[in-house]
Amino acid sequence: MLYFLALFLLIFWFTRIYHNRLMVIQAALSFILAECFGKLVSTLHSNYQPFVELKDVNLLIVKEVNNSFPSDHTIVFFSICVSFALMRKHQWYIWLPLAGLVGLSRIWVGVHYPADVAVGALLATLAALIMYRITPHLRLVRLSLEKYSQFENKVFRINN
């Protein structure tokens, strides 16, 4: 699913629509902020995955033993999908269930506890909401998008 998410980011970027590019930047910044939140929270609490601590966990994927709190996959998907849902309000029913299903899958395959997923989702949603409010007002973002568009127009100029 990570590959599909990356593909959607690329597709939205290369539509050459300002709103879509702003959404991709916002999603990327949300992910970075959510990962910072996750690293901070993981220093306050640590636990091994369910397949390490519990008997009879049917591990469905190969996973190394490490701190499972909070779920990084959940952070990735919620930060990006909530960003998409905020920017494309008419498509929330696609992005939010997708993020939720990824979170549930992490529990299903035996690599995270429900609290790992819940905290990852909460941190990522908080980061997405913060970036939704901040990103459109960042001068650096606006200037970068403008300069990139100018560069792209020069490179891909079609002669009439």
From TrEMBL:
Superkingdom, natural source: Bacteria
SMART domains per UniProt: acidPPc (SM00014)
TM region positions: 93-111, 117-135
One MF term in the entry's GO annotations: undecaprenyl-diphosphatase activity
Ranges where the Phosphatidic acid phosphatase type 2/haloperoxidase domain occurs: 27-132
Entries under Pfam families matching the protein: PAP2 (PF01569)
Keywords per UniProt: Membrane, Transmembrane, Transmembrane helix
Keyword Transmembrane helix: yes
GO cellular component: plasma membrane
Classification via PANTHER family: AT30094P, SPHINGOSINE-1-PHOSPHATE PHOSPHOHYDROLASE
The protein, known as: Undecaprenyl-diphosphatase
Protein species of origin: Peribacillus psychrosaccharolyticus
